[in-house]
Amino acid sequence: MPSLAPLLLLLCVWASVDASWGPGVRYTPDWDSLDSRPLPAWFDEAKFGIFLHWGVFSVPGFRSEWFWWHWQGEHDAAYLAFMKQNYPPGFTYPEFAPQFRAEFFDPERWTELFEAAGAKYVVLTTKHHEGFTNWGSPVSWNWNSVDTGPHRDLVGDLGAALRKRNLRYGLYHSLLEWFHPLYLADKKAGFKTQDFVRSKTLPELYDLVQRYKPDLIWSDGEWEAPDSYWNSTDFLAWLYNRSPVKDTVVVNDRWGAGCACKHGGYYNCEDKYTPGKLPEHKWEKCTSVDTHSWGYRRDMRLSELLDLPTIIRDLVQTVSLGGNYLLNVGPTAEGTIPVVFEERLRGVGAWLRVNGDAIYSSRPWHVQSENSTVPIWYTSRDSLVYAIFFQWPAENKLELTTPKTSPATNVTMLGSPKPLKWTPLGVTGLSVLLPPPGPPSPTAPPAWTVRLQGVA
What we know:
By secondary structure, the protein is of the alpha/beta class.
């Protein structure tokens, strides 16, 4: 018989928020109503965030954060061999937890890095599919970061440091847990029972919102069951109507099988989603510096990591198409962010300090890209248009065929206030004379931005 504690926790949460009803729109627990909620403006303005996959899977640090599933769910030969070669017979996955100590975790140092990277929001895994929670979840006894391993509230400590720097805080939460007995029983019953949802998933979601008041909930682990099993619409109606973050919280689209790219706040659609044209709905691309894993890998190689020019190109193209860019790095079990990841993040920040006006709070222009002398990606902000390019044009002449000039047209390059000389190409378009570039250097910018004023 399931414990009554989770039910009592839910009742306490519902009772505590009754007083928060107030005037305004009330959303009902159905997708037509929930999907009509306007997305809080801060999210579209932010543009760039950092994703952190951190948990017990960081201890083996082998191949993927899906280590437990590949080892004992799929019985993958590589994982079986890794365990046989490095751990004694009978070793179980929960025995990794005491080694997840996070002894070097310094949230102030982390948040200084995120701020220097130019990120406006940070999303931390509070619980991945392994079920281990990075806070003292009252329904995850002895399988959480307070009872074992670090013996500290990782979610709370990072959140406090982020808010000192006015960075928005997002909480990733997996709905499913691969090997939880109640989840497996519900799954065996064809998801016609909801013991796991009522005893584990919902109490944790309510607890996270009440305790940490997140700016964003990044839901995942939804794909095996419909949203009706997860009670997603009931939770979101509470979140939008009664929760302490009802006016500011943002959510994604992973709330049940078939919901992705269809229901929710903004759309992820799928990992590393890259649309070929401007979508009609706000979206976010989540991707990882390590192209093979979201979690930390001890066996990663430099050739498997995104370099800075690739990251900047990806960021620019995403923003030009109206998306946000969520870049993942995997911290170590000791609580450090690998230096190579830090180098990438600080490189993004250095570029954004010069070119951020073309990114933050920008909007897609009526044309997103063109390919004349070199490929160009456009963004806009108020009456300004920004043309971003990754390759320096021959003879320092940049041709832009789309903008329509006027007598008031003024052209500058971000990072320099000096006006650039330009000549019209015809009814539309202009040729811009750029200043000579510096000598080739490993520290040369991966992209440049021309700002156009007085164009249509």
